[in-house]
Amino acid sequence: MIVYVDLVFFTNLAVDGTVLLTTAKARQLRPSRGRLFAAAFLGAAYAAVMFWAHVPYLYSFGAKVLISLVMVLLSYGYGGPLHFIRNLGAFYLVSFATLGGVIGLSFLLRSAESPWSGITYTSDGGLLLEWQSQLGLFVIAFLLSVWLFRSTSETRRKRQDLEQLFWEVEIRIDDGSWKMNALLDTGNRLYDPLTRIPVMIMEASVWKEQLPSGWCERLKGESADKLISELDARASEEYRWGNRLRLVPYRAVNGSTRLMLAIKPDVVVLSREGHPLLQVNRVLIGLDGGTLSSEGTYRAIVHPDMAQADPITSAPSQPA
Question: Which Pfam families match (predicted)?
Fold first, then answer.
């Protein structure tokens, strides 16, 4: 068997560099290119030395772990034991995921009778691929594995980031209480212009039974001030939430200024995993006639100022 050591070196240099770069992306690190190249060069040299010198202990389990430790240190630095262990774990995870992807995708893409034909293992644990039929397949499978891993990692990270924006909201008015899932919108800067009270948004359908007859449906297409004007003084006094009604101006998507119907609650409690964390007294509930989430994952939008409210253990302040 003829083995081209230079090809082994450059192949491992590219593979190790890609694994180290993917690990950095997964850990949201920004190492210098020089550090990554030095670590990848070490890994490639380690793989190539086996064809020049036969040293049994050089390719033992302990030696392989030691080389990986040095590669991680060269790439990302130490930064403390916990930081280092997380980087090392991510490095192994990416390595195992990509290697498993190479073997699995090679099996799918190969037309040979046996998925192991053309793959040879050396006595030192190395992996050899036939040049004519396997190198191109290895490159394709490896790149696909890296892409699949990075796509999966990005999707999981985005999902975790999105989960941090979700709250369980409880709105209390008089003796009533309504609970729902809500999304924290950092771009929501809607305030009542007079009192500077933040305004969170909620689907009007949540209070369909509490609003005057027909208001929930009419809010989809009619202006809130028209609904308020239809309530004469007597009807407003008879409506138990009449003194809680507010009109909040806001700018629509087309740039025009409109009025939103809002209600002043007694208190809003923000929770996560069933544990009350924050209590908000100064807030208005703006009513939206449509559906906030097409998937139904949330029915309210939390104002970012509400996330800065007093912890639930503190003494409640007087509502504004």
Answer: Peptidase_U4 (PF03419)
Instruction: Answer yes or no: pTM beyond 0.70.
Output: no
Rounded-to-integer distance, Cα 94 and Cα 37, Å:
17
User: For residue 154, which amino acid is it?
Assistant: E
Which pLDDT score, from 0 to 100, does residue 160 have? Answer: 57
- What are the phi and psi torsion angles at 64 (to 5°)? -65, -40
CA-to-CA separations, 271 to 164, 187, 304, in angstroms, rounded? 12, 21, 15
Residue 250, phi then psi, degrees to nearest 5? -150, 160
Contact predicate 282/246, CB 8 Å? no
Query: Which tokens sit at 99?
Result: 């290697």
Residue range 144-194, pLDDT digits in tens: 666 666 666 665 666 555 556 888 999 999 999 999 999 988 878 899 998
**Residue-number span of the structural domain to which 266 is assigned:** 166-311
| Neighbouring C-beta atoms of residue 122, cutoff 10 Å | 13
Active site amino acids:
185
pLDDT over 70 percentage in the chain: 72
Rounded-to-integer distance, Cα 107 and Cα 145, Å: 13
Q: What would the 3-class secondary structure string for 162-229 be?
A: HHCCEEEEEEEECCEEEEEEEEECCCCCCECCCCCCEEEEEEHHHHCCCCCCCHHHHCCCCCHHHHHH
Q: Do 26 and 142 share a structural domain?
A: yes
